[in-house]
């Protein structure tokens, strides 16, 4: 059994940087056609060109996960180029650091809309099209929600972010149950701390280094540490896995 995605098309939401960009490269290397969606179109198009220069098949599209019309347009573009989309990686997410008593309402709404509503909209659009194209008979539908270990931790500094990630895990179970007879598997992947361009400055700071030293293994995850599990969940190897939550954090949450 391999994690080959040959013949599959996967849309990655939040693909312009960080783990989303890494996921897109991994999908292409596994033989999948990858559609890179994000608000920063110039970035997704640049990454798509990079992937194609290395022999992969990729398309960069504009995608605002909080806007249903934008989500529909992204899937339309994907289908126009590659045909039916077999899976989606709901990776778009933002946070607003600060104590709950200090964060403005607009910031809270932004986190809720992007992390939870956005994941719902892209998952739903993917499922609608899968069902219409016959996924019930094929059994090839795959939805992977990207959560966080903050969903199972108590901390100070970003309560709404953690709450939305906890909500994602339950959303995954709800959607898995709803679509279980439609040939669509829905699972949630919860990563620990990974260095990205968003948090690189913090982890390079003195306090950030102190945070790393408090982790049991005193290290962050490697940038590609989630790839194998992601490919498993998108591939035929996981045909009997749905409604599950997988934590990959190098023991950070222990």
TrEMBL record:
PANTHER family: 3-OXOACYL-[ACYL-CARRIER-PROTEIN] REDUCTASE (PTHR42760:SF133), SHORT-CHAIN DEHYDROGENASES/REDUCTASES FAMILY MEMBER (PTHR42760). Keywords: Oxidoreductase. Belongs to the short-chain dehydrogenases/reductases (SDR) family. One of its GO terms (molecular function) is oxidoreductase activity, acting on the CH-OH group of donors, NAD or NADP as acceptor. InterPro entries: NAD(P)-bd_dom_sf, Sc_DH/Rdtase_CS, SDR_fam. GO terms for biological process: fatty acid biosynthetic process. The lineage of its organism: Bacteria, Pseudomonadati, Pseudomonadota, Alphaproteobacteria, Sphingomonadales. SUPFAM superfamilies: NAD(P)-binding Rossmann-fold domains. This is Short-chain dehydrogenase. The keyword Secreted does not apply.
